[in-house]
């Protein structure tokens, strides 16, 4: 089976120890490592679930880099067959952010940008994102973000799909958007945007398949077959756990293949599976 995980992190110690993850550690039982985790541990978690390729995300917040683009590039260099990278940038410095995105794509080979709005307290329609949207279009890479409530102890307001992401999709119709974490409790809003805009997609990271809201399952089974991507949010949720109840979704073979890999390969330009 071909599976692409659209949202993964290989955690650095500074990421894993950050106080923003305290609530997630409490919910998921994720432990703080004593030393820098080896990339082989992430590969092993992928192998246990049959995940062939993972999109590793860098993380940058107001306090600085938690997982740097260069660290992600280093991990990818060890296993280019298993990973692609998603860049992170400093929203406070718009021109530096554009230059870093350009470097990450053109020099490091990354396939997209991810910005997590609650880290900055800035919704996606804030002016500081807009130069990055234009650059994503020019570079031909997706913009990836988080929608829905926040597991970490931060305000959830920035994760509302409407009006924030709605504004972005309206003003940047060429921008390919991948909205992770389903959008719960505003899942219907997120589905409405995916239906409304050809370039808006949803990924299921941070949720196990048995916890997908019924409206998302209906969308997967019907007109959303080309719009939903599998994601785990590793290490918070291991891919095997995220996929454990996949059969209960009752997807036909074509929709299952699109959900698990086909949509991600198309959206991120990953090509066909080897």
CATH hierarchy, class: Alpha Beta
Global structural class? alpha/beta
Distance between the termini: 11 Å
Shape descriptor: globular
| Helical proportion, percent range | 25-40%
In N-to-C order, the SSE pattern is: EHHHEEEHEHEHHEHEHEHEHH
Radius of gyration: 17 Å
Main sheet record: 8 strands, parallel
Q: Could you tell me the mean pLDDT?
A: 94
The number of helices is 12
Number of domains: 1
Oligomerization status of the protein chains? single chain
| Number of DSSP-assigned strands | 10
Beta-strand portion reads 5-15%
Low-confidence stretches: none
The CATH homologous superfamily: Metal-dependent hydrolases
What are the SSEs and their pairings?
Blueprint: E1 4-8, H1 13-16, H2 22-28, H3 39-49, E2 53-57, E3 59-61, E4 64-67, H4 69-78, E5 83-87, H5 94-106, E6 112-115, H6 117-120, H7 130-139, E7 143-146, H8 161-171, E8 177-180, H9 187-196, E9 200-203, H10 214-221, E10 228-229, H11 239-242, H12 253-267
Parallel strand pairs: 1-2, 2-5, 5-6, 6-7, 7-8, 8-9, 9-10
Antiparallel strand pairs: 3-4
Helix pairs in contact: 5-7
Could you walk me through the main structural features you see in this protein, from its secondary elements to its overall organization?
- The protein is built from 12 helices and 10 strands.
- It has about 270 residues and is α/β, with parallel strands linked by helices.
- It has a single domain (about 5-265), classed as Alpha-Beta Barrel (TIM Barrel), CATH 3.20.20.
- The strands form 2 sheets. An 8-stranded parallel sheet has the order 1-2-5-6-7-8-9-10.
- Helix 5 packs parallel to helix 7 (about 130-140).
- It is globular and about 45 Å long.
- The mean pLDDT is about 95.
């Amino acid at each position: 089976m071909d599976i692409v995980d659209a949202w993964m992190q290989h955690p650095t110690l500074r990421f894993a120890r950050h106080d923003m993850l305290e609530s997630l550690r409490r919910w998921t039982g994720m432990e703080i490592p004593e030393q820098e985790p080896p990339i082989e541990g992430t590969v092993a978690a992928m192998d246990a679930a049959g995940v062939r390729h993972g999109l590793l995300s860098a993380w940058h917040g107001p306090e600085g880099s938690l997982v740097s683009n260069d660290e992600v590039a280093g991990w990818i260099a060890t296993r280019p067959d298993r990973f692609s990278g998603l860049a992170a940038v400093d929203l406070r410095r718009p021109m530096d952010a554009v230059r870093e995105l350009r470097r990450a794509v053109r020099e490091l080979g990354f396939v997209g940008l991810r910005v997590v709005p609650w880290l900055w307290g800035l919704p996606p329609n804030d002016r500081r994102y807009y130069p990055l949207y234009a650059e994503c279009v020019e570079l031909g890479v997706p913009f990836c973000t988080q929608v829905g409530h926040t597991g970490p102890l931060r305000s959830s307001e920035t994760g509302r799909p409407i009006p924030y992401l709605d504004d972005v999709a309206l003003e940047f119709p060429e921008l390919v958007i991948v909205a992770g974490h389903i959008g719960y409790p505003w899942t219907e809003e997120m589905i409405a945007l995916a239906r409304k805009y050809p370039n808006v997609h949803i990924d299921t990271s941070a949720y196990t398949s048995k916890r997908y809201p019924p409206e998302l399952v209906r969308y997967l089974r019907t007109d959303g077959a080309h719009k939903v991507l599998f994601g785990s949010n590793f290490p918070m949720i291991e891919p095997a756990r995220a996929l454990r109840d996949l059969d209960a979704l009752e997807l036909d073979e074509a929709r299952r293949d699109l959900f698990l890999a086909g949509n991600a390969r198309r959206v991120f330009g990953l090509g066909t599976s080897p």
